[in-house]
């Protein structure tokens, strides 16, 4: 079958809208060999480029198109040439390269997921054995338009629980309300969080991305543990506020927190008293509590729906 080119005809009542392209989910594992001691960075890197791409859509001219295959190769070559100091730094290198080396490309967005590996402590030779840490996935999104940077970092699937110091009562009751007031409940959630840096231009000193991540995660967890919670909303706010107060480089934090309900099991039929000891961990439905916490005077730029960021 012959495919006819589809030229953009003047007068055609059709316009090309937002578009981007690139290679998604490049899985790259970089080993740094420090004698017998090895270090691992394990990333999933997605490249999305945009710019003067009207012609490829209108008439199939590829004259401005750097192949997605090349963007994949660049990820692997950069892992060798520049190493991977952090997800953010790696994304910055890539974004800068695509925008500055290709005239038609005006904007690059690099998304990174990072999987962490912990060293297996053992008595054998070398330090090259790891166990995949089954905790959160670290996230970074770097966007560059040739002038300014937007760096949003984050994490997903960080599961936390407080087995007490959580209450929920005094809520609105209507004719459909059956929820009993809780004065001592489990509070558990699977944290999905994104935070935006106020580093936007090369003239500013960039944050130390690794320290920033570790400290932000620590503040988030400490706030979760230390807040006596009257609602998951209040806990969320404290987690965000703690980050904004302690990390000068961060202006905005957004959370999506599923309330992982734990219901007390009725043991009366068995003649047993359930003294807040035996729970049924429900997986669905779940309350979903989402909010942004901002530094005063700074804009809210992280989108409400975190599923695609
Ligand atoms: O922390 C909570 N916030 C709510 O808004 C809510 N709603 C609900 O049924 N349980 C809870 N818990």
From TrEMBL:
This is Uricase. 5-hydroxyisourate binds at residues 68-69, 168, 185, 233, 259. One of its GO terms (biological process) is purine nucleobase metabolic process. It comes from Streptomyces lasalocidi (Streptomyces lasaliensis). InterPro entries: Uricase (IPR002042). Belongs to the uricase family. Pathway: Purine metabolism; urate degradation; (S)-allantoin from urate: step 1/3. It catalyses: urate + O2 + H2O = 5-hydroxyisourate + H2O2. Urate binds at residues 68-69, 168, 185, 233, 259. The active site is at residues 23, 68, 261.
